[in-house]
Amino acid sequence: MGRVCEICGKRPHAGNKISHSHRKTRRVWKPNIQKLLVEIDGKRKRMYVCTQCLKSGKVKRPSQKQESL
């Protein structure tokens, strides 16, 4: 589950690496996935989120203030 964004579904993408001599080898582009604490429906949950979803505001981070029990 580690390399998939739980918000937009972004996952690794495969293609060819092409050298200067035009030799082709397979390679993988991995998305920048972060495991963070997010707030969904008033509940805190750890999720894997890509940085573009985080930057665009699709995910709300909880406030830094901890509630005392």
**Structural class by helix and strand composition:** mainly beta
The count of DSSP E runs of length 2 or more, i.e. the number of strands, is 4
Instruction: Round the mean pLDDT to the nearest integer and report it.
Output: 90
Largest sheet strand order: 1-2
Query: Uncertain regions: pLDDT < 50 for 5+ in a row?
Result: none
**Tally of contiguous helical segments:** 1
Sheet with the most strands?
2 strands, antiparallel
The helix/strand series, from N terminus to C terminus, equals EEEEH
Report helical residue fraction: under 10%
Radius of gyration: 17 Å
Question: Describe it for me?
Answer:
The protein has 69 residues and is mainly β. It has a domain of 44 residues. It contains one helix and four strands; from the N terminus they run ββββα. The protein is rod-shaped, with a radius of gyration of 17 Å. It starts with 12 loop residues before the first strand and ends in a 13-residue tail after the last helix.
Give a quick set of tags describing it.
two-stranded antiparallel sheet, 41% strand, mainly beta
Task: Describe what is shown at a glance.
The chain is mostly beta strands. The protein contains one helix and four strands, in the order E-E-E-E-H.
Secondary-structure blueprint:
Layout (H helix, E strand, L loop, with lengths): L12 E6 L5 E6 L3 E8 L2 E8 H6 L13
